[in-house]
């Protein structure tokens, strides 16, 4: 089996694209970004042989890398354009930021765990992605980032909505993507999570869409040096 520069075989690349299509991903630019971003580079060494599969993988600090199809579904919902400036809250391994960097002009990604932020910077630098800035800090606190953004993606769920200062950072026509926690159904202990897309149609005009179930985990505030 022939391998590419990132160690993946042609068969593995084809399998990944098939997985994305099965969950409804049709944006060719998103599919190409996933195809050309080596997920194994961002996975812990002991799990790199599993990086080509459509499964979530554990990483440091008790966090996880989402399954590629789940992440692709989220990023496609952003409807990214090459001129966009994107804010990502929850860097994790850095894989999502690397994919975003192939789709947008500039990506600012914020991670609350210092270990994860540091490791992500090294991996992003290894890919020579100069349009990504990885920041260690509390992305849910005012002052963590500055400027306006065309797209904001928060890899977490809220009981209501993200902090208002983040939504205020959206440019007109901008989109924020996040999870929302809803009451657990009768007889269940775990609350439901729904993926929500919020669009800023004008200064005080907003429209919101429910994109279906998701599993992101509740938002956590504060920054942590290590876990």
Automatic annotation (TrEMBL):
GO biological process: methylation
Entry GO MF terms: protein-L-isoaspartate (D-aspartate) O-methyltransferase activity
PANTHER family: PROTEIN-L-ISOASPARTATE O-METHYLTRANSFERASE, PROTEIN-L-ISOASPARTATE(D-ASPARTATE) O-METHYLTRANSFERASE
Domain of life (superkingdom): Bacteria
EC primary class: transferase
GO cellular component labels: cytoplasm
Documented EC number(s): 2.1.1.77
Claim: Transferase is one of the keywords in the record: yes
Protein name from the UniProt record: Protein-L-isoaspartate O-methyltransferase
Main location: cytoplasm
Protein family per UniProt: Belongs to the methyltransferase superfamily. L-isoaspartyl/D-aspartyl protein methyltransferase family.
Cited InterPro entries: PCMT, SAM-dependent_MTases_sf
Subcellular location field: Cytoplasm
Keyword Methyltransferase in record: yes
Name of one Pfam family that matches: PCMT
Protein keywords: Cytoplasm, Methyltransferase, S-adenosyl-L-methionine, Transferase
